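Page 42, continued from yesterday. The earlier attempt failed because a stray header line got pasted into the input along with the sequence. Redoing it now with the clean sequence only.
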Amino acid sequence: MRFGAIAWAAAISITLGACGQRDHATSAEPNEATTNEVAAGNDTAAVQPSGAQAFVNKAAASDRFEIETSKLVAGSAASSAVMAYARDMIAAHTASSAKLKATLAKDPSAIVIDDQLSPSQKAALDDMKMKKGYIFDAAYVAAQVHGHDETLTELKNYAASGDNAALKAFAQDLIPTVEQHLAKAKTLK
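This time it went through. Structure tokens are written below.
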């Protein structure tokens, strides 16, 4: 019961931290009309990727997040089950990254991988760096459940309606693996 309460508190901490990060970033951004006016007069304005490029970036960032958070486990976790899960995540997400690179190497569309973490991923990673023991375990497990749930949704969506056949196949092939990771993460609670 104590571990469940700690897990709940850690999940709330991560969620609130990510929400606070997102709210802060949103309030500092210009409104849409201003953005459109600036973009119209500036050919070098940053454009958010869409379609295949956006999918690749999210998939790569997901792998990077899983690997980086799992590397923290060795020096921070208390549970041997969490440690074993983290080892599996490092191996699986390293393999997933390699498969994504191999898929793109054969693709003529010249998509470039950008594995930059999202603000909420950065916040969760930074938060975990400050935790130890069972408090770390709870934060790690909560992040794994949340991350794999989001990734599963992205994979299913892209497999169903993506704009690149090779990446649709990549997404479809990864769905069972991510479902297994999510199910295993939920048992660690």
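Notes: Helices lie at 2-28, 32-41, 51-76, 80-105, 119-129, 133-161, 165-187.
Reminder to self: strip header lines before submitting.
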